[in-house]
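Table 4 source record.
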Amino acid sequence: MSDAINHPATRVAILATSEKTQQRLASLLKDAGLNVVAHELPGDGFLAQLENASPDVLLVDLSEENGAETDVIDTLLDYDALPIFFNDSSPAGGGANALWAKKLARKLSDIATRHEPVIEPVGKPDVTETTPDTLLVHKSIAIIDVMDAKAVSIDPVSEAVIVPDAVIPIEKPKDAAANIWVLGASLGGPQAVRQFLAAVEEDLPVAFILAQHIGANHISLLAEQLNRVTPFVVLAGRAGHLIRHHEVILTPADKDIKITEDGYFSLMPAMENAIYSPSIDNVMSAVANHYGNMAGTIVFSGMGDDGARGCEAMARQGGIVWAQDVDSCVISSMPDQARKTNTVTFSANPQALAERLYQYYRD
């Protein structure tokens, strides 16, 4: 059918808390082009069905208040490397049903395609990605194969990617991001970034790394909120993740980031007694050093001067530096300090910044 997505073979299982909901979701996702191989209510029978169906992705519906699925979900998190989405809202009804289902189906297929088999589990289950109206849970961090034989391991304490000495720098995977932009924000930043990402076009060939001054416990919540307004996939940064276009990666508040030569996200312990967490300066410098003139940065609303040194590092490497204008900021200290470095070449409100970015890559 003309409305089918590009991955009709994606096999999805649906776990819902009512028969009416699971039947409706199954029908909508089938019409959207997915292969629904299992749809059941919570219980041991569903686990047995999963074993036989071998789905690519599991959709768990939480739009109705019911705790019956808790035991099954807890079992699944330890049971398999299957990517799981939690849906927390139902389609609006009427013609919106098909549009809602198509968008969800596209996200499910995309994540199922990207999901890498877990070679060896590292750490506990961790919420790392969200999509509009859904929450993706990764159950572990995968070890990444490097070319033919060597493997990248992950330090269990620092979560840093460790490459054996014998491994020579390799070319980036074909789907690794080429264009990276750092979004730096503090007080008033979440609102500004939300407006910016809501105006971002779906086909913009860019990956964003967001360095937002925020408590470590609020990263997942911020990712979920941002994911509801943008066509990009928003996720919390984790060691070993390949940075791709059409993603927004949130920098952990208690870590410094590094980027491997082949484009993977890496985390290091933050410097002791750091003034800002995360350090926007450090994130900008790491991206500028790796991507050079293929990188850029935008400084949004915030108090203090974090990001000013990073803007200078970005400009030295040939990257682009923009900033939010004074009138649209809650607090303009950070973008003002960035402008004082004489590296900022464009200032505007969040929506205009998104439009200018799209125009830049379209031209």
